[in-house]
Amino acid sequence: MSENPLPGESVEPSNNFQPPPYQPPVPPQSPQPMQYAQAPVQQPQQTYAQQPQWGPTPPTYMPTGGPPRTNVLAIISLVAAFFVPIAGVICGHIALVKIKATGEGGRGLAIAGLVVGYVNIVAGVLFVALTIVSMNSYAYSAASAY
C-alpha cells in the first residue's frame, strides 16, 4: 500500500508508533566554591553614559526658523483667570508642566494666569467674608435699635 492514499482508498492504522524514551530532567549544577589559588573573574564595568529611555520622547513642537509656538493652555489660563479664577489656576499649572516637557513658549502667560487667578480667588473669598460680617453687624445693630 502506498504512503499517500488516493481518495476513496481505505487506510489501515499502523501500530508502528513508538514514543520517545523517557529522559529525566537534569538538575541544575551548583557553582563550585572558589579556590584560594584562583583569581576572581572581574566583570566588565557598567558605564552610565546613556540612560535608558522609558517610552517615546516628547515632541518638541519647535518649528525651524522662528520662535517656539505659544502654549494654548497658557493663553486660556490668562483669559480664564479674569472670569473663572479656578479654571485659570488649573490651566496655568497644566500649561507650565506642558511647557517644561515640550519646550513651547508661553511660560510668562501661564505664570500671569496663575497670579491673576490666585489674586481673584483671594479677593472673592475676602469679599464674601466681609459681606457676611457686614450683614451680621447690620442685622445686630438693626435689632438692638428698638
Break the fold down into its secondary structure elements and pairings.
Elements: H1 72-83, H2 85-102, H3 107-144
Strand content: under 5%
Order of helices and strands: HHH
Approximately how much helix is present in the residues?
Answer: 40-55%
Number of helices: 3
Instruction: Tell me, briefly, the overall form.
Output: elongated
Query: Which whole number gives the mean pLDDT?
Result: 81
Report how far apart the termini are.
126 Å
Largest sheet: none
Number of strands: 0
What would you call the quaternary organization? single chain
Tell me the Rg in angstroms.
39 Å
List keywords for this structure.
single chain; 146 residues; mainly alpha; 3 helices
Structure, explained:
With 146 residues, the protein is mainly alpha-helical. The chain has a domain at 72-144. Helix content is 47%, strand content 0%. It has helices at residues 72-83, 85-102, 107-144. Helix 1 packs parallel to helix 3. The longest helix has 38 residues, at 107-144. 16% of the residues are buried. The mean pLDDT is 81.
Question: What is the gist of this entry?
Answer:
This protein is mainly α and 146 residues long. The protein has helices spanning 72-83, 85-102, 107-144. The protein has a domain at 72-144.
